[in-house]
Amino acid sequence: MISALQAVSRWLANHASAFIMAIAAFTFFFPATFEWVRGNTQTFILGLIMLTMGLTLTTVDFQILARRPLDIFIGACAQFLIMPLVAYTLVHLFGLEPALALGILLVGCCPGGVSSNIMSFLCKGDVAYSVGMTCASTLLAPVMTSLLMQLTAGEIIEIDAVGMFLNILIVTIIPVGIGCLLNYRYASKPVFLTLQSLMPGVSVTCLACIVGGVISTVYDDLIAGGWLLFGWTFLVVFCHNSLGYLLGWFIGRLAGFSTPKKRTLSIEVGMQNAGLATVLAGTFFAAQPLSVLPCAISCAWHSISGTILAGFYLRMDNKKDQ
Predict the structure, then answer these.
(1) What is the pLDDT of residues 152-178, one digit of tens each?
(2) Which of 145, 153, 237, 255 is the most exposed place for a label (fewest CB within 10 A)?
(3) What's residue 322's pLDDT?
(4) How high is the pLDDT of residue 91?
């Protein structure tokens, strides 16, 4: 039984983007399926995702923050400067309506996504640096995300910065902390190691549930707006994500980083924790239901684009070897 669950977990981790897209498509035709993923349930699911992240972190991962402070500082600055600025620029360039603008800005102001570590591994990047950056941006998120949303979206809607700070603290830092503590105390236990092996599948399934819940929430508005609404929103998400990858790589080049570190910085900057953005949008911008649409599209697209980018980097290596 356990071996079967581990096989399923590996399959889900290897096909995360396809699975999430399948759930999104299924929910579009059967929107009632994920109506239960709302409010506190959605928040709990995100907390579970962050718990799975904490369960895989060790004290060595946090030591990276102390051993490589300059690298982490450059990465954190790039993360919290590039993506919010690009989001702010695109929102005004495309003339997005307030609800969609809030969603894009929220994705831009969130920390890096957990999947970025997997993508860095796949493209032979600096995995230790990737984990260090994810830790740093997650730890900074309660302050930076709420502050940046106040600065970039304050002109659109009143931002409850304190409430957002507390919410991010509860759904990110506390679950990650609990996971790290459990890992520290029980890492040598066979049962715990088995539990860890199931976490990738749990994380992907939870993220798919969040995406399904978002599609269910915005279903009526999505039908009313048609493909034009979806296509226009996807175009902005695509530009935001792609510019993050590109500018992240150039920052690494300016900093004199090695090729593996440039790849990692590119992925870390471009891939955001869109699951967190989705929960925050549903919690703080409930009066603007379409604000969750860019977050949901980002959830799926970042996994797909990250896989594509990792494959591109590997093809570059193969050409050099030839």
Answers:
(1) 988 888 888 888 888 888 888 888 888
(2) 255
(3) 59
(4) 94
Q: What is the pLDDT of residue 270?
A: 92
pLDDT digit string (tens) for 83-125? 999 999 999 999 889 999 999 999 999 988 777 777 777 777 7
Neighbours of 283 (CB within 10 A): 17
Quick check: 64 pLDDT over 90?
A: no
C-alpha count within 13 angstroms, C-beta hemisphere, residue 173 = 13
Distance CA 243, CA 83 (A): 8
What one-letter code names the amino acid at 1? M
φ and ψ at 112, to 5 degrees?
A: -65, 155
Q: What is the spatial distance between Cα 132 and Cα 13, in angstroms, rounded to a whole number? A: 21
The number of beta carbons lying within 10 Å of the beta carbon of residue 91 is 25
- The b/e string for 50-64 (b: 16+ C-beta within 10 A; e otherwise) is bbbbbbbbeeebeeb
Whose tokens are 């980097």? That residue is 313
Compute the distance between CA of residue 12 and CA of residue 108 in angstroms, rounded to an integer.
Answer: 26
Q: In angstroms, what CA-CA distances link 253 with 75, 127, 286?
A: 12, 18, 41
Q: Could you give phi then psi for residue 159, rounded to 5 degrees? A: -100, 125
Q: Residues 236-247: pLDDT tens digits?
A: 999 999 999 999
Could you tell me the two tokens for 25? 């498509």
Q: Check: CB of residue 78 under 8 Å from CB of residue 245.
A: no
- Say how far apart CA 53 and CA 72 lie, in whole Å: 19
Look at residue 95 and give its three-state secondary structure: coil
Decide if 95 contacts 233 (C-beta within 8 A).
no
- Cα–Cα dist 46/44, whole Å: 5
Integer Cα distance of 129 and 244 in angstroms: 17
